[in-house]
From TrEMBL:
This is GDSL esterase/lipase At5g03820. The keyword Signal applies. Coiled coil: none annotated. Belongs to the 'GDSL' lipolytic enzyme family. Residues 1-24 form the signal peptide. PANTHER family: GDSL ESTERASE/LIPASE EXL3, ZINC FINGER PROTEIN. It comes from the Eukaryota. The keyword Signal applies. CDD domains: SGNH_plant_lipase_like. One of its GO terms (molecular function) is hydrolase activity, acting on ester bonds. Keywords: Signal.
């Protein structure tokens, strides 16, 4: 890996970079990923669901210049993270052909677009609920135990970084549009419900031997182009109500995580992606961006602004200066900035 690729913003990065270079091996044995479309690398390709990204123009700037199922023009933040940690490949999608043999020993990706803390969110869209992702992880663990034996396998599970990205779909693709939920619960009450699922998930993961876990906060959901289209009432400004709910959820996520840190030996880091993304959106020029509102793909009229596919009218020719690739997801450039933030915040997970 090249040091120059690292977003050198703090001493931690410098220290990490030198660690990577000195040893040449990854800093941790494996990277295990759970969650939603922000981190899905192709599990949904294998499902009967409308929530897929395995067609152009998705992937056009990826290493292979082909769609993979990633909801991005190029790499996800977690792809950069894998590189920064010193891995030479990305954890394969659990349901893909690549998830076999030695590939399993450096990690796996169980994430599924449109999944979330609330299992019903995933079920609405035919995605893989978080509880099912955990069952797949159990299957994965058995395979690893069969390959390397119980002791070595346990060392891999305890040393591996487990990343979880969830919650956005629960709000945007379920709570805000589902009268059964928003009629019954306030955003605060809904947050409490899904944070109950979060606690259970972390405890189960801990039971399975995970000791290094990172969870991402909600992004500024009110600034996602699709959210502005759906809930902005014709304005092109971030939807303040949604951002307030995200901040309030993130505070609760923080305090819930503080309680979970009582589990002996558990390192649990809450990654703040709210502020880094809001910072990019508020001051795009400072971060080398020229477009913070419109997505590169799927822009145009209100009707098409939710959809990105090969027939999307007006897809931008170069996504480099766009913060958003499609209505819900950051571009590769924005992901690289986010990954730099993850790295600096995640130092405790590695040391
Ligand atoms: C969590 O709390 C810490 C300090 O208590 C604060 O520095 C951090 O910004 C909070 N994180 C989020 C995501 O709100
Ligand atoms: C996209 O634009 C950036 C500068 O914003 C430039 O460095 C890059 O080469 C361009 N990519 C393509 C494929 O034109």
């Amino acid at each position: 890996m090249e040091i120059s690729r690292i977003f050198l913003g703090s001493l931690d990065f410098v220290l990490l970079a030198s660690l990577v270079v000195v040893h040449g091996d990854p800093l941790v044995p494996a990277l295990i990923i759970f969650g939603d479309s922000v981190v899905d690398v192709g599990n949904n390709n294998n499902l009967v669901t409308l929530v897929k990204a395995n067609f152009p123009p998705y992937g056009r700037d990826f290493v292979t210049h082909r769609p993979t199922g990633r909801f991005c023009n190029g790499k996800l933040a977690t792809d950069f993270t894998a590189e920064y940690l010193g891995f030479s490949s990305y954890p394969p999608a659990h349901l893909s052909q690549e998830a076999r043999g030695n590939n399993l020993l450096t990690g796996a990706n169980f994430a599924s677009a449109a999944s979330g803390y609330y299992d019903t969110t995933a079920r609405l869209y035919g995605a893989i609920p978080l509880t099912q992702q955990l069952s797949y992880y159990r299957e994965y663990q058995s395979k690893v135990v069969n390959m390397v034996g119980r002791d070595k396998a346990n060392a891999i599970f305890a040393g591996a970084i487990h990343l979880l990205s969830a919650g956005s779909s629960d709000f945007i693709q379920n709570y805000y549009i589902n009268p059964l939920l928003n009629g019954a619960y306030s955003p605060d009450q809904f947050s409490d419900i899904i944070l109950g699922s979060y606690s259970t998930f972390i405890r189960n993961l801990y039971q399975l031997g995970a000791r290094r876990i990172g969870v991402t906060s909600l992004p500024p959901t009110g600034c996602l182009p699709a959210a502005i289209t759906l809930f902005g009432g014709g304005s092109n400004q971030c939807v303040a109500r949604l951002n307030r709910d995200a901040v309030s959820f993130n505070d609760k996520l923080n305090s819930t995580s503080q309680t979970l840190r009582n589990l002996p030996g558990l390192k649990l880091v809450v990654f703040d992606i709210y502020h880094p993304l809001l910072d990019m959106i508020s001051r795009p020029d400072d971060n080398g961006f020229s477009e913070a509102r419109r997505a590169c793909c799927g822009t145009g009229t209100i009707e098409t602004s939710l959809l990105c596919n090969s027939r999307s009218i007006g897809t931008c020719s170069n996504a480099t200066q766009y913060i958003f690739w499609d209505g819900f997801h950051p571009s590769e450039t924005a992901n690289e900035v986010l990954a730099g933030n993850l790295l600096s915040q995640g130092f405790d997970l590695i040391s």
